[in-house]
Amino acid sequence: MAGIIYELIEVLEEQKECYEGLLTLAKYKQDAVVDKKLDLLQEIVITEEQFVGRVNTLDKKREVLLKDISIVTGMAYKTLSITRIVEKLGEENETSQKLLEIKNNLNIIIQEIKKQNELNTVLINQSLELIDFTINAIGSTKGYTHVGSYNKPGEDPNTERQQSFFDKKQ
Fold this sequence. Notes:
Layout lengths: L1 H33 L3 H36 L8 H8 L4 H48 L29
Helix pairs in contact: 1-2, 1-4, 3-4
């Protein structure tokens, strides 16, 4: 079983490196959006796709290893987790400590990626609003206006939105 655990550690380490790369790219993406560097943004997206492809490959490998660990230990695959593996190995075990360290690092990195992506989403939405405003401003000088629709995919732009408190007539 030790060999399988060491393989799992290697896969998790590689995933951690990929997620660190994705975090770095997310920060570069912020700069590209703010500085309106579309060519850089396109390169970042292509590189992100490569990282995501690598993460997906590693996920599949990790799942195979977890299934093998499940068979060897007799633990149910559906309930198998790093925490349960650590409990089985003993928390004082050096391998267990390494697994816990990787798990914690992965959690921290993933949370940072999530925050950065949320920030990037806000920046992109603000850029879209500015573009819409600019198009409307230019159009109004020529006698027409553009009514942009940045609805979520699949959302019908013709359906009524819930009115806010300030939209209601008293």
